[in-house]
Amino acid sequence: MSEGKIALLPDHVANQIAAGEVVQRPASVVKELIENAIDAGATRVTLIIKDAGKTLLQVNDNGYGMNPFDARLCFERHATSKITNADDLFRLATKGFRGEALASIAAVAQVELRTKRAEDAVGQKVVIEGGKFIVQEECQSPTGTSLIIKNLFFNIPARRNFLKNDQVEQKHILEEVERIAIPHTNVHFVVNSNGNELLNLPAGNLMQRLKSLLGSYIQKELVPVEETTPYVKISGYVSLPEFTIKQRKEQFLFVNNRYIRSAFLNHAIYEGYKDLIGPQSHPRFFIFLELQPSEIDINIHPTKTEVKFTDDKTVYMLLSSAIKRALGKANASPSLNFENEMSFAAPSLSAMPKAPTIGYNPAYNPFSNPAPLENKSNKANWENLFDGFQNKQDSTENLQQELTAIKSETVDFTPIQLNQKYIVAIWQQNVLIVDQQRAHERVLYEHYLNSNLLHPVASQQKLFPDQIELSVNDFTLVKDLIPELKTLGFDLDIFGKNSIVVNGAPTDMEDFNIPEILEGILETFRLNTIDAKVEKHDNLSRAIAKNTCIRYGKSLDTTEMKALIQSLFACENPLYTANGKYVMMTVENSEIEKFFRK
Known about the structure:
- The structure is a single chain.
- By secondary structure, the protein is α+β, with helices and mostly antiparallel strands.
- It has three domains: 11-204, Histidine kinase-like ATPase, C-terminal domain (Heat Shock Protein 90, 2-Layer Sandwich); 207-351, Ribosomal Protein S5, domain 2, CATH 3.30.230; 365-598, 2-Layer Sandwich (Ribosomal Protein S8, Chain: A, domain 1), CATH 3.30.1370.100.
- Helices cover 34% and strands 21% of the residues.
- The chain has an eight-stranded mixed sheet. It has a five-stranded mixed sheet with strand order 9-10-13-11-12.
- Strand 7 and strand 8 (196-201) form a beta hairpin.
């Protein structure tokens, strides 16, 4: 009988494959270990990381601890103290199963466990490296458990190479801590990174926890949500419509104190804000749903961040109604009469929220000085500039002649604005259409990109400096970016824990809300870091341009449109935005004539 092709994998290989479902990055380890600590009854959890968890991850808790037998068995696959049969999966009230992930973690790292129960005289020490058991022995240990994870993915170099830079990986770690710390306000959390304390969250109530994480400013922006029904209890906080932000951030959903992601629950929350906020505005929310464990299924995703409800429609309706009711009590919207099928009368004018506004000075023109535009020559790049417009040689030559004429200011053109979005101009019977937001973004991008230590962006000192409280993630990022931000015109300093003071801002931002602009810049910078590897100065220049450029819907007069087009064609590459989107297009007269001959 010939030998078959199918063979059983060695245990260490199977464990490494299984680890891929649980351990994706250092933040995955943090999530599992802290959840285990919570399940073990800990009231204090300390996380110590080095090099964003790549070199060291240590979680210390003061929970129940384990006896010698459990200390060894918890590293075996399928070892658990929470279930005995399949039906128990639908009655879980804990985060997971003590030791469920430890086998996977131990398969791809060097692990040391120290644990002791209150009734034991000495503790237990277990060492495992790459899934291989090294030693178990008695040791001195405080009551609770300490897990030290060293050199994550040391035995899978290819996997380690896929990790992002320390800044990104630390951001993911802090996000995981936030997701656990927000619902577990009875636990004191401490986070240290490379010897610096990043978080110190004493036990308290939910609002105290949110203020510790995000800043004390958050209290005035939130209203409480509270609704109790026989099926589900809904509680938490949502932001008032006038305090919505431009990015989807600080949005947290919890089911039975477990962080989840749910598109349909998000939609229910936004439905509660219907007609109160614009399409580009996003509320902050911290919503908790409590149901019987039998009413939900949390085992549809390996990371348990997705759930199914036995009655999705009821949860959706109740959540949306609870949001509307909370906003109504805060006079942000009319209150609801639940006996009238969620219908309500028109609100009074005094109860309507403030319309969102854009801080923009219509008289401001950062490129009003004609000298730099006239002196700046871009002729060397003109042949490459029009590659994306038309393939026909004659149309390219015509457009090039028109733009050359504009640059030399020998052609007097009168642009018009279309739909408060596009600038349309006619030269030599051809039509040029410019996207006003993308054009201004390109102009600003090159303006900031060309700054450096020798030629920094001019800063306008503020009569009353802004003190800004930041989230831990944003504060950590700002500290790293202060030298670059100062080069780009932001005069700011550290001002206490998680706070900065802005003494000055770029001169072209004097009419902007600086705290709001900085928040947008940091979020855009962070997204650029994740989506593409962009150099720091370049990234910040993109982020500032993205958050301060003219928006669609902004009316421009003829002078402003001319100045914008003039500034655009003084750029090194006026055809594209920094991320490669088209800024303009041309429609030739010959194409128009051809169309109407049909």
